[in-house]
Write a structure and sequence with these properties.
The complex is a heterodimer of chains A (304) and B (80). Chain A folds into 2 domains: 65 residues; 162 residues, Glutaredoxin. Chain A is 54% helix and 13% strand. Chain A has 8 helices and 9 strands. In chain A, the strands form 2 sheets. In chain A, strands 2-1-5-4-3-8-9 form a 7-stranded mixed β-sheet. Chain A has a two-stranded antiparallel sheet with strand order 6-7. In chain A, helix 2 runs antiparallel to helix 3 and helix 5 packs across helix 8. The longest helix of chain A has 65 residues. Chain A starts with a helix and ends in an 8-residue tail after the last helix. The N and C termini of chain B lie far apart (56 Å). Chain B has 80 residues and is mainly alpha-helical. In chain B, helix 1 runs antiparallel to helix 2. The chains are: A alpha+beta (304), B mainly alpha (80). Chain B: This is Cytochrome c oxidase assembly factor 6 homolog. Chain B: One of its GO terms (cellular component) is mitochondrion. Chain B: Pfam families: COX6B. Chain B: It is found in: Mitochondrion.
Amino acid sequence: MLGSKCVLRDLCGGGRLLRNLHHMQRSFGSSSSSSLTSQSQHGGLRPGLPQLALRRILSYDRHGGLRSGLPQLALRRFLSHDQSSSSRSAHMKLRTRLVVTLLFGSGLMAAWWWVYSEKQEKLRQQRIEQLRRVALGQGTFSLLDHKGQRRTKKDFLDHWVLLYFGFTHCPDICPDELDKLSAVVSKLDGDPSLPPVQPLFITVDPERDDVAALASYVKDFHPRLIGLTGTPEEVKHAGRDYRVYASPGPKDEDGDYIVDHTILIYLLSPDGLFLDYYNRMKNCEQITESVRNHIRNYVPLNST
Amino acid sequence: MTAPNSAERKACWGARDLLWKCLDDNNDNAESCKNFQGEFEAKCPAQWVKYFTKRRDFLKYKEQMEAEGFTPTDGPKQPS
C-alpha cells in the first residue's frame, strides 16, 4: 500500500524528477563527461551515469519501500508538505474569506444605516426650522367652553393639544373625525409614560353653535373633549390664528346650511404652536404613533 | 333648530346606506327605490339629503374615472 502511494507520488513528481535529472546530469556530468566520451568512443553499452541514477530513483524493493536517493527524499518531503499544507491553507482561506466577507457586509450595512439616520435627523431639523418660521398659532384666543366657562389660549399652554375645527350640523365628516380623535386620545391615555393630551373642538359656525348646542354635541365623544365657541369675531380670530378656512354655504328653506371648512386635526405642542396635522387619510393608529413620536422627540419651537 | 344628536345621525346614515344599496342593486334606477328615498328624506335634515345625494354622484364619478380613465373634452374654440 505504501508502495502504491509511493508510485503515485513518483509519477506525479515524475516530471519534476526528470527536470531535476537534468540538473543532476549536469552535476554528475562534469565529473564524468570524460568517461562518457570514452564510452562512446569505445562504443560500449555500459549504462551512462544519468541512466543509472534514473533507474535507481525509479526502483523499489519488494517490500514496497522506496530506496530514496537524496534528491528523491527531499522532493517527496517537499511534495507531501506542500499537499497537506495546501489543503490546510485552502481550508483556512475559506474560513478567513467568509469572515472577511461577513465583516465587510456588516460594515457596509452599518455605514448605510448611519447615513440614513443622519438624513432623517437633517429632515427633522429642517421641518422644525420651517415650523419655527411659520410659528402658526401665535396670539391668544378667548372663547367660551361648552360649560360656559371662558377659556383662553393660556389655559392650554404646557399641554399637548389635538385640535379640530368643525360644526355641529356637519353631516358625516366632523363626527367621523371626532370619533377618530377620541380614539386616539383614549389610546394615548392608556400609555402611562405620556402626558395627557387635551382634545379640543372649536366651532366654525358660531351663529348656530352656542354653548348648549356644543354641550349636547361633545358628550357623544371623548369625556375630556372641550368644545369652544364665542361671538363670530372671537371665533374668526381663533380660526385666523391657525389659518383655518371656513365658508358657510347657501341657506335652504329651513335656514339650514353646511359650512365648508378645513377638515384637519392639528397637533399643538405645549408652547401653543402648531407642530403637525392629520387629514382624513390618516387612521387612528397612524395618528397615535405620530403623536407619541412627537411627544418623545419634542424640541420647543420657541427659542426661550 | 338643534343639530341631530348621535342617535339621529346614526339613523340618518342607516337610511342613507339602505338607499344607496338599493340604488346599487337596481343600477341607479330611482323608481324602484322610492320607499327607501322616502325613509331617507324623513330621517335626515334637508341639507344632509342634498349633501349625500351630491356625495353619491361624486363617488360614482370617481369610480368611473378610476375604471375608465379620463378623456378630456375638446375645450373652448380658439378665437379666429
